[in-house]
Write a structure and sequence with these properties.
By secondary structure, this protein is an all-alpha fold. The chain has 2 domains: 92 residues, no CATH class; 114 residues, no CATH class. It has 6 helices and no strands. Helix 4 runs antiparallel to helix 5, helix 4 packs parallel to helix 6 and helix 5 runs antiparallel to helix 6.
C-alpha cells in the first residue's frame, strides 16, 4: 500500500507531489461515493422495492418509500464504512488493494452466472439465480476466510471456484427445469388429447 505513496514522495517536487496526491484522493473519493450510492440504490430498489411490490404497495406511495429507505441505508452504512476504514489503518491484516479486490471479485462471482443465463437462456428463473448467487458468495468468502487451499489469499482463486460453482448451479438447474417443463407439457398435451377423445367418443354414442 505504501509503494505509490513512497514513489510520489521520493520522485516529485513538493508542488507536483501535492497536485498528484489531490488527484489520487479525488479519484478515490469519487469511486467510493459511486459505490456507496449504488449500494443504497440496489438495496432500496432491488431488495425493499421487490418486497413492497409483492405486497401490493401502490406505485405513488412506493416512490417515496424507496427514497426514504435509500437515505436510511446510507446513514446506516456510514458507521460500517468507518469501522472498516479504521480497522484497516489500525490493524491491517492485508493490503487495501487486496481487501477491495476481494469484495469486487465476490460481487462479480455472484452476478456472473445469473446475468449470463438470464440473457441467453429461457429456463433461468429468479429462485435459480438467487441460489447461484448465494452459492458463489458462500464458496468465495468461505474459501477466502476459511483458508481453504494455499492460495486463498489471492481473491482470484476463490472467485474462480465461486464462478464455476454458481455456473454449475445455474446450468444443472436449467437442465432440471427444462426436463420438468417438458414433462409437464407432455402431460398436459396427453391430458388434452385424452379429454378430446373422450368427448368425441361421447358425441359418437349420442349421434353427435
Amino acid at each position: 500500500d505504501r509503494v505509490v505513496a513512497t514513489y510520489i514522495a521520493s520522485s516529485f517536487a513538493p508542488g507536483l507531489r501535492a497536485f498528484i496526491m489531490l488527484g489520487v484522493l479525488a479519484a478515490g473519493f469519487s469511486t467510493l461515493e459511486g459505490v456507496i450510492l449504488a449500494l443504497s440504490t440496489i438495496f432500496a430498489n432491488d431488495f425493499f422495492g421487490t418486497i413492497a411490490r409483492a405486497r401490493g404497495t401502490a406505485p405513488e406511495r412506493l416512490r417515496g418509500q424507496l427514497l426514504r429507505v435509500g437515505r436510511i441505508f446510507l446513514v446506516a452504512l456510514a458507521p460500517i464504512t468507518l469501522f472498516l476504514a479504521f480497522r484497516q489503518i489500525t490493524a491491517p491484516s492485508l493490503s487495501v488493494a487486496i481487501f477491495a479486490q476481494n469484495g469486487v471479485y465476490g460481487l462479480f462471482a455472484a452476478t456472473f452466472a445469473p446475468v449470463l443465463f438470464g440473457i441467453f437462456s429461457k429456463r433461468a428463473s429468479a429462485p435459480l439465480a438467487f441460489a447461484a448467487a448465494v452459492t458463489a458468495l458462500v464458496v468465495h468468502f468461505g474459501m477466502y476466510y476459511g483458508g481453504i487451499t494455499h492460495y486463498h489469499n489471492n481473491p482470484a482463486v476463490p472467485a474462480t471456484f465461486a464462478l464455476v460453482a454458481s455456473t454449475l448451479v445455474m446450468g444443472l438447474g436449467s437442465i432440471v427445469l427444462r426436463g420438468t417443463s417438458s414433462a409437464a407439457e407432455t402431460l398436459h398435451t396427453t391430458g388434452v388429447d385424452e379429454l378430446f377423445r373422450r368427448r368425441k367418443r361421447s358425441c359418437s354414442q349420442r349421434f353427435c
